[in-house]
Write a structure and sequence with these properties.
Belongs to the XFP family. The chain is an alpha/beta fold. Helix 2 (28-50) packs across helix 4 (108-117).
Amino acid sequence: MYGFDVTISSAVSAQEQRRRATAGPLSPEELDLMQRYWQAANYVTVAQIYLQDNPLLREPLRREHVKPRLLGHWGTSPGLNLIYLHLNRLIKEEDASVIYLAGPGHGGPALVGQAWLEGTYSEFYPAVTSDLAGLRLLCRRFSTPDGVPSHVSVPTPGSVHEGGELGYVLSHAFGAAFDNPDLIVAAVVGDGEAESGPLAGAWRSTAFLNPARDGAVLPILHLNGYKISGPAVISRDSDTDIEAFLRGNGYQAHFVEGDDPPGVHQELAATLDRCHEQIRAIQREARRHGVFDRPRWPAIVLRTPKGWTGPKEVDGRPAEGTFRSHQVPMSDTRTNPAHLAQLEDWLRSYRPEELFDENGRLVPELAALAPAGERRMSANPHANGGKVLIDLNIPDFRDYAVKVEQPAVIRRESPRQLGMMLRDIYSRNAEAANFRLFCPDETNSNRLGNVFEVENRCFVGRTLDIDDHLSPDGRVMEVLSEHLCEGWLEGYTLTGRHGVFATYEAFAMVSASMAVQHAKWLQEARNVPWREPVASLNILLTSTCWRNDHNGFSHQGPGLIDVMLSKRGTVTRIYLPPDANCLLSVGDHCLRSRDYVNLIVIDKQPQLQFLDMETAIRHCENGVSIWHQASNDDGGDPDVVLGCAGDIPTMETVAAAWYLRRIVPDLRVRVVNVVDLMRLFPVEYHPHGTTDKEFVELFTEDKPVVFAFHGYRRAIHEIVHGHPHVGRIHVRGFNEQGTTTTPFQMVVLNEMSRFHLAAEAIRRVPRLSNRAPDLVAQCEARIAEANAYAREHFEDQPEIRDWVWTDHD
């Protein structure tokens, strides 16, 4: 045990090293082969970082053989290669199905190199052959224009985990293991990554992994001591403290540590054997006798030097085992002859002439160490989830329709209708076991509780008689962590399943960066032909900013809309269904879609229902429509257009149109509702966008537009930019005004009430200029009355609270 040691001592006697080299499951021949394979993997890693030519040093290294820009991360790569090599041994000996998730994602050259060594890379990228020419191209592709990124990413065979942002490896790993009973997910957790919030929460996932029906996650905590320049906190902890930490999270820690390769090889091989047997024993017991308590899963703690096998010193300062080996140990090899010579010595220390034949192919005895076919981690079909994706059996969403005989008369909790549909999706797909709902302890709160008629909350641990719908066999995933819910769903969909992440709107921002990274993954996957389409990531936001009746300002924030608007239109979709029937139509579409991040925003409180099902379907197919029943322009040229997107904005807009009929009966008003927000883009900026002709047909050529929007006003101005005469569009939306108050007071605070919208419409119609002051005063008087009533009675006026559409008196 190394305890608090900053670096790993090499002061181990030769006798002790010999003892360690023989005290393990590897024969001398196996040990030699594995050491040489590791050397080959490390060589290919260094070559990718540094070389653009002469990749096997068939001639002396010259400055022109080195890339002009050196990009990549060496420090974590030897450890990643070591783990990969030993997992390959386990796969071959046990015929295990394993995928590899690299938390230290900037170890990209290691994972790319492994895929090349076992032949998968050449299968996916035929130009990158498994010989000298292919290695040269592999090196020239790494971190260069039109090449591959420096981190583990979409083009890397075997990856389901984007390495650009730290903290997600464990949540993705558990998501991949859910409902994958034969799969082992090896999740390498970097010691720097272990400091991140998402990773900290993800350790608790053992409370949700059911060994009777799920696969297994094997965390490998790789401690090499440093981040970019500072120490990694957990690396300075004693083994005793790390063991206690892991034990408290449901793991049994197995420590492997050292800097003498033979001993580490033997220890890691023996440890992996023990961990695999422990995993299979847990699963056998659960599958024979059931799950009665949370098992203690194995986890490996691997302490090895940062930049192991790299330069011991550079310019007289320690490199191996320190932060100086984090990225490129020697960055000026083209201009510094001493560093160029040191690089050549480093590369030749791996003895490439003994690892690769005259054609540059890995020698046969080493190539034989890799698994074959789909057992290769770089070719496992679970790492290309579209290959194993089974379509959901989805019931007809029309069966859950709200009967709407007249618009804006009846009220329903719209998400409850979707909850009934999700309930039946669970039932219809029970045998396939390929659907889960993920929610931060809010399934009932968000009106999706009908799922509990057929499904339970998942919890693997001690249960009490007073628990509600709680079982190890449940597939409703509730945990009070947006990071964990989002990460689980990402891992679940990327390995070929379907799901929904439902959360309070404001707190979706907690995991917004995860949604961004996933969108980037999907965007890049479209450029990788061998990546099969996966089910979309469906995010349902409810408990929205306009109706947090008992929470207040902290729970009010529609910012995820803005985040998703900034992503490429090829992968992001934002839907704002105004009622239950539109929600059902949108939900059906999103659950059937592939390779998108779908954001659906609708509140959970009782709300007016506007469209019968057939009308709702047409409206959702169009994405934006003129609502003739709320308009009075008789299909002609209106004086003003009232636009809206979102459930509360729609209600206030329709109420404003109704109110304007009463106080200005000669005003011609058109109401336009948007359910697919992307329809407001010009068509050249988004595939769902409208042409100028379509935009004019909806919003006219030059008439004023008063637009009520669910989110921040600036978003609409950004979206419509490029359409004709957009300066005439005035937007009302959430303006960071909030508190615990009545529903109508929320729209008043943000100046989006029906009376604010009516007044704005009146002010913007030139022919009403003489009458406008009196008409606007009427609107302002109604606002004042509503404010006074709410302060006195703590509720909204009945004529506002209970407002429904009625025909003219």
